Amino acid sequence: MSQTVDRALSILPLLAEGPADLGQVAERLGVHKSTALRLLRTLHEHGMVYRQSDQRYRLGARLIALAQEAMENLDIREIAHPHLVRLNESCGHTVHLAVYEDDEVLYIDKVESRYPVRMYSRIGKPVALTVAAVAKLLLADLPEAERRALAGTLEYPLYTARSTPDAPAFLEELARVREQGWAVDLGGHEESINCIAAPVRGADGRVVAAMSVSAPNVVVTAEELLTLLPQLRRTADAVSGEYSGRTTAKEPA
Amino acid sequence: MSQTVDRALSILPLLAEGPADLGQVAERLGVHKSTALRLLRTLHEHGMVYRQSDQRYRLGARLIALAQEAMENLDIREIAHPHLVRLNESCGHTVHLAVYEDDEVLYIDKVESRYPVRMYSRIGKPVALTVAAVAKLLLADLPEAERRALAGTLEYPLYTARSTPDAPAFLEELARVREQGWAVDLGGHEESINCIAAPVRGADGRVVAAMSVSAPNVVVTAEELLTLLPQLRRTADAVSGEYSGRTTAKEPA
DNA sequence: CGAGTCTGTTGCAGTGTGTGCAACGTCCAT
DNA sequence: ATGGACGTTGCACACACTGCAACAGACTCG
Questions:
Q1: pLDDT tens digits for B87-110?
Q2: CATH number of the domain at B74-243, out of 3.30.450.40, 3.20.20.80, 3.40.630.30, 1.10.3430.10?
Q3: At a CB cut-off of 8 Å and minimum separation 6, what does B172 contact?
């Protein structure tokens, strides 16, 4: 791989933490100031970083524009979005859409809860693989070999007492999820937050995305949340149908 | 600037148009396939591009995550402050910056008038929603439903004879403000104080903040204050540009 | 079934490109 | 004035990047 590009790209996550000046960037990269300057200049010319009035650098607009374009190209998102909105209107809770990519599961869309108490999440943010309901669905659909290999390399942080403890337990959970066609996370990531998820499938039956409904204990109990499962599954199935071309969003009048 | 990084970054907008394979990337960059491969590999390691099942490359998830993080860290106050100062230096009056948060409008920055007679205000203090010029701008940008709901729950205290009397009048005023893109408060809060305001908009056009110039009657008449409107709007637009990353504060000479 | 042609990938040698250094300019505080 | 901190520039060296050519695998066609 390319050293120069590697260094340049390493600057971006660094700046994502907050603005930094030339010296800080150079130090954290472990290179000379002049080197850092040239990298930053190149990034600047491409609009990836932006120089604010105090001369410090922060991430630039082009990055945001590119990301927006990237998301627009995810057609699953486009199709699913109105369904997420409708689901949120009906139940009021936070609704997420997630996909699997390069050993990560990421939220690619989200409709905020209409309750004042909300869970924190961010579009684009990698999800806790071993506990999140959407992650279980997406990973459960991987080929057997890949699934076992991945389970072996993962870490199993004990966010709470109910977090998945180790690889065998995880593989067992994935098998159950695969079997039943939906998944839950009952306080496995944050003690007080529960989550149910259902798969969106492509024409070939492969799981292409997962959608979920999340709510804190203080708003609804786990049992109450589970009563939403049929509605969630119907919504996910509707998205699946549309994505695989079997049905359309609105029948032509 | 760096050739290697320049080439690597040029790949991103290219992929934003749609997925492309190695050959296409190499051709459009004007480099050998092997060169393009190494660049793509480096981008891939940083999650900036993703290799889909048909081996073609797409923009990657980390790009989305970075952009999202960047947007969270944007600090309007930091960006706007020097502009407020400059505006104050030019006109001498009190300049405010306000945001909408949880059914309240708050001043988050202020540059004091250079005239001896000043209006009283405090950073962090909630603003009188029904009369303040900045509040009108921020509320006028809310979704129709939310705006109507909020207007219904508000109280309409008659600070002065020119205060907004009730919900219908308020909604009408908001519609006008929304239409014209700026707002005034002529003695609606304190009999002797006038105020003009203009919106700061994010990349998506949503109003993220409002800035205002306030002055008591004894210093300038309402008509005189209104002559500052173009300058105020230009300043607000400059902040908008910077906030959404379209422009930079100062290009390095 | 094997020749042909597409892909993507790897090792290598030359050199052009990125590197660190040192010196300079500027700003600010003392 | 004087020192320090910071961004910037020019330069000589070396090394990281480049393009080439050869290889490997998938696929198509006769």
A1: 998 999 999 999 988 788 999 888
A2: 3.30.450.40
A3: none
